[in-house]
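User: Hi! I have a protein structure encoded as tokens and I'd like to know what sequence might fold into it. I'm fairly new to this, so please keep things simple.
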């Protein structure tokens, strides 16, 4: 299982080199890990730890409670248990992605982007960074990056000049997503899993995330001079390929935003899983947009419908999450992740705050090389939620990992979904990013780490 997981992980990390989509590698890894586990369950399952009532169920049904039957029952039960947890994450993401795509189809983001008009490089840098930081806390950092890169193309003519601004967008998007339960996939996973709660994660991680952005911003502000050169053609609200009225754009934008912000409130009030609130918001926005366009002709009505928009959802990313979460859950069920946790406890020691900081910082730096989703999923599998201490709900470990896993990926352009998106859209070279942005991204990352430690010591 470990060999399959490492080979799959390697294929994911070198996706662009080998030319195989990471979703395919993740799905193969997840299913093969579970297959090997099931076939070898007789030598893995701890039968002494199985509750007696499970064995009694088989004897009551007249089935011999031999180890082979019990092992298959246990593994099947584990699969369904993990799939239920994974499905709640995937349904949440599907709902959020559909709402964002619906806003984008109505050009709703122009409510923000059309307000940016300054030519001064430093002012523009700060405006872009602040918008990205707060927008990614509500949307996902991938969508925010795509929106902001589109804005940069309207404001800055030269591609090389845009790269610096695109670099700060990556840092700001990752920092902004880290402190919000709906801003980054890894933070969302911790929130859905019950490791963190809404207000605690905002209060605990907002300041470190802000410092993670401010330090690179302050450094770049001393290096940039003069004004940007705009493209010859000035875009206006009339250039949109899918024209909508100003009223429609504002209505859908603010309704979608309200729907996303409503999800944590719904979870707090009802205690239902977050995906229920997300689906409620999607249903309400779906109803609103259908009513909004019901009097238009069939072609225009279909263009702005959820049925049409849902085809633009990034399905490969959803399948990637499914595959990698299946793979990690198999390692958890087979006992690999608890064993890894014990190893870390013995070598570093997560029973002390300093040990937690070291492990969390390492996880953040690793997320610059490999995807942060499996890293956080592995952390969840290694450390169950405790009644008290560093691993309790809203404990030190979970808050710190939310920050490090969310922001550490900015150190390399391939370390986050935001970085990969900017790399593809702007053709930013890996070497240029390492030379010009990696050091300042690490400056912000370690600055945030220091602020979090000091902040925790003072509370």
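Assistant: Happy to help. Inverse folding works backwards from shape to sequence: for each of the 459 positions I chose a residue that suits the local structure. Here it is:
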């Amino acid at each position: 299982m470990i060999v399959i997981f490492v080979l799959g992980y390697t294929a994911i990390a070198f996706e662009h080199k080998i030319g195989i989509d990471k979703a395919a590698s993740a799905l193969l890894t997840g299913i093969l890990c579970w297959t090997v586990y099931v076939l070898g369950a007789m030598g893995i399952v701890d039968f002494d730890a199985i509750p007696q009532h499970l064995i009694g169920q088989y004897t009551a049904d007249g089935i011999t409670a031999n180890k082979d039957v019990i092992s298959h029952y246990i593994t099947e039960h584990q699969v369904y248990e993990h799939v239920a947890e994974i499905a709640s994450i995937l349904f949440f993401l599907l709902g959020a992605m559909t709402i964002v795509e619906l806003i984008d189809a109505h050009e709703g983001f122009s409510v923000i982007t059309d307000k940016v008009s300054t030519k001064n490089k430093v002012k523009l840098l700060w405006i872009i960074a602040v918008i990205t930081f707060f927008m990614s806390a509500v949307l996902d950092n991938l969508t925010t990056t795509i929106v902001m890169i589109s804005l940069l193309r309207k404001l800055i003519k030269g591609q090389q000049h845009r790269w610096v601004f695109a670099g700060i967008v990556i840092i700001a998007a990752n920092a902004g997503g880290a402190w919000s339960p709906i801003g980054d996939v890894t933070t969302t996973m911790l929130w859905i899993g019950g490791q963190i709660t809404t207000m605690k994660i905002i209060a605990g991680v907002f300041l470190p995330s802000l410092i993670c952005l401010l330090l690179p911003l302050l450094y770049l502000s001393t290096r940039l001079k003069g004004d940007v050169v705009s493209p010859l053609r000035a875009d206006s609200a009339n250039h949109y390929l899918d024209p909508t009225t100003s009223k429609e754009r504002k209505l859908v934008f603010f309704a979608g935003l309200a729907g996303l912000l409503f999800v944590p409130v719904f979870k707090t009030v009802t205690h239902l899983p977050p995906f229920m609130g997300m689906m409620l918001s999607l249903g309400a926005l779906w109803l609103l947009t259908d009513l909004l366009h019901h009097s238009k002709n069939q072609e225009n009505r279909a263009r702005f419908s959820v049925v049409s928009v849902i085809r633009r959802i990034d399905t490969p990313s959803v399948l990637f999450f499914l595959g990698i979460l299946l793979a990690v859950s198999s390692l958890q069920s087979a006992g690999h992740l608890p064993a890894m946790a014990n190893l870390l406890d013995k070598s570093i020691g997560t029973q002390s705050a300093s040990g937690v900081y070291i492990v969390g910082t390492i996880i953040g730096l690793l997320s610059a090389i490999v995807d942060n989703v499996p890293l956080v999923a592995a952390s969840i599998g290694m450390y169950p939620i405790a009644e008290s201490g560093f691993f309790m709900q809203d404990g030190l470990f979970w808050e710190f990992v939310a920050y490090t896993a969310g922001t550490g990926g900015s150190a390399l352009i391939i370390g986050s979904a935001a970085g990969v998106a900017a790399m593809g859209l702007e053709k930013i070279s890996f070497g240029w990013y390492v030379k010009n942005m990696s050091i300042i991204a690490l400056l912000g990352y370690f600055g945030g780490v220091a602020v979090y430690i000091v902040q925790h010591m003072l509370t």
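A useful reference point when you look it over: The CA atoms of residues 118 and 124 lie 6 Å apart. Feel free to ask if any position seems puzzling.
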